[in-house]
């Protein structure tokens, strides 16, 4: 489980760099929601179309979402894991 968390954290850190490089707004809520919505998290919270986001950001956010869907079946477990990861990054 620690490897999974570390992989997700690393991917989120890369997403933060991409956001900063492209002047895309992000916060802990947007990062948290990636586990549930993928790149749609940016669309929902920033009112940006996914087509207007950098391809590498969309791919990485969607990859995080898929990793959660494949490995963490319970919604509550996803919440707990994302809380822990986001808290460790702040």
Helices and strands, in order, run as: HHHHH
Residue ranges: pLDDT <50 for 5 or more in a row? none
Helicity range of the residues? over 70%
Task: State the distance separating the first and last CA atoms.
Answer: 21 Å
Mean pLDDT: 93
Largest sheet: none
Would you count the extended β strands for me? 0
What's the Cα radius of gyration? 12 Å
Structural class: mainly alpha
- Sum up the overall morphology in one term: globular
What amount of the residues lies in strands? under 5%
The number of helical elements comes to 5
How would you characterize this protein structure?
The protein is mainly alpha-helical and 90 residues long. Helix content is 77%, strand content 0%. The chain has five helices and no strands. The protein has helices at residues 2-21, 28-37, 40-46, 55-71, 75-89. Helix 1 (2-21) crosses helix 5, helix 2 (28-37) packs across helix 3 and helix 2 (28-37) packs across helix 4. The longest helix has 20 residues, at 2-21. 20% of the residues are buried. The model has no long low-confidence stretch (mean pLDDT 93).
Short summary:
By secondary structure, this protein is mostly helical. The protein has helices at 2-21, 28-37, 40-46, 55-71, 75-89.
Per-chain topology:
Elements: H1 2-21, H2 28-37, H3 40-46, H4 55-71, H5 75-89
List descriptors.
90 residues, mainly alpha
């Amino acid at each position: 489980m620690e490897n999974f968390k570390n992989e997700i954290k690393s991917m989120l850190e890369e997403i933060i760099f991409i956001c900063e490089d492209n002047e895309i707004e992000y916060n802990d809520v947007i990062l948290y929601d990636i586990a549930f919505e993928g790149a749609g998290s940016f669309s929902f919270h920033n009112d940006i179309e996914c087509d207007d986001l950098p391809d590498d950001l969309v791919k990485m956010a969607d990859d995080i979402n898929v990793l959660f869907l494949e490995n963490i079946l319970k919604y509550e477990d996803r919440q707990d894991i994302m809380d822990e990861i986001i808290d460790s990054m702040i």
